[in-house]
Write a structure and sequence with these properties.
The protein is an alpha/beta fold and 309 residues long. The chain is 49% helix and 24% strand. It has three domains: 83 residues, Arc Repressor Mutant, subunit A, CATH 1.10.10; 113 residues, 3-Layer(aba) Sandwich (D-Maltodextrin-Binding Protein, domain 2), CATH 3.40.190; 102 residues, 3-Layer(aba) Sandwich (D-Maltodextrin-Binding Protein, domain 2). Helix 1 crosses helix 2, helix 1 packs across helix 3 and helix 5 crosses helix 11.
Length: 309
């Protein structure tokens, strides 16, 4: 048994499927299957029960996984520490971000992280909330930026800021003169929404379900920018985080607070191991707080100028 076989075993254990594990490891399925068979032969135990759809871990596999994960984590930390002695201090931080917070935070975050940690290679993946949590659990992401609390056991959240679900309508919409819109009023509106795989859509559907209602979906797009570009040419509405107004506000769209009740959103950093990611969490939290403060200052300045004109 060696570290390579352990890494292969962990991938198969977490994915429950040789094909997905092989794709994650960038090797062929036959090669991966052969390595797992060799590991079983070396240990003289059966690690998986093979069914038609997936691999089911045995009790021996659960035991091996609990020992293998700390070993692989320790090996990675050792490599990073030794890399510093070779002058190879570059390390990678993989971050998964929800589309509905990406455009507000990421562009300005990247440059600030580069200035603070020039030897850090940041990889950003725009993903759904479910995919962020899945990848955090299987180790292919270090940190996620999404809505709290995490839905999967074993994940931990660190609060960044609070937001709220907001109704967005074209400037000529019948509700244009309303200062705020109740959930019941919004439930009646024909809508252009993100797909059901997006967490904002799920939050909206859950709110309406509390009223015994379903959203009046007229069209769907899987891209928030596409929705905001399309709305001015329609009489449809959508729901998005209110903070998106700071980067997507135009004269063609109106952003109306939802009420009765308000729908609060908590945005934060999510990870599997707080202790291991402590330094990265602290860095990102500091940087993102700076980004949000700068955004607020620019918005307040623009509003002050508008008030004088």
């Amino acid at each position: 048994m060696d570290f390579k076989q352990l890494r292969y075993f962990v991938a198969v254990y977490e994915e429950g499927h040789v094909g997905r594990a092989a794709e994650r490891l960038s090797i062929s399925q036959p090669a991966l299957s052969q390595q797992i068979r060799h590991l079983e032969q070396n240990l003289d135990v059966s690690l998986f029960e093979r069914s038609s759809k997936r691999l089911l871990p045995t009790l021996a596999a659960h035991t091996l996984y609990n020992h293998a994960q700390p070993l692989l984590d320790g090996l990675q930390r050792a490599r990073e520490a030794l890399g510093n002695f070779k002058g190879q201090a570059l390390r990678t931080l993989a971050i998964g971000v929800l589309q509905t917070v990406h455009s507000n935070l990421v562009p300005q975050m990247l440059e600030r992280v580069r200035q603070a940690q020039p030897h850090l290679v940041v990889q950003i993946y725009e993903l759904t909330g479910l995919e962020i949590e899945r990848r955090l659990l299987n180790g292919s992401l270090d940190i996620g930026i999404g809505y709290l609390p995490p839905r999967q056991p074993g994940l931990h959240g660190v609060m960044l800021y609070e937001d709220e679900l907001t109704l967005v309508i074209p400037a000529e919409h019948p509700l244009r003169d309303f200062k705020k819109v109740s959930i019941r009023q919004a439930a009646e509106l024909p809508m252009l929404l993100l797909g059901e795989e997006f967490q904002i859509r799920q939050i909206w559907q859950a709110q309406l379900a509390n009223l015994g209602r379903r959203p009046q979906v007229q069209a769907e797009l899987n891209n928030m920018a596409g929705i905001l570009d399309s709305l001015p040419n329609t009489r449809l509405a959508t729901v998005l985080p209110g903070r998106s107004h700071k980067t997507h506000g135009t004269d063609e769209l109106l952003w109306k607070p939802l009420s009765e009740p308000r729908v609060p959103l908590k945005v934060g950093l999510v990870c599997r191991d707080v202790q291991r990611q402590q330094a990265s969490l602290a860095l990102l939290r500091t940087v993102l707080e700076e980004v949000m403060k700068a955004q607020d200052e620019r918005l307040n300045s623009a509003q002050a100028i508008d008030g004088l004109s």
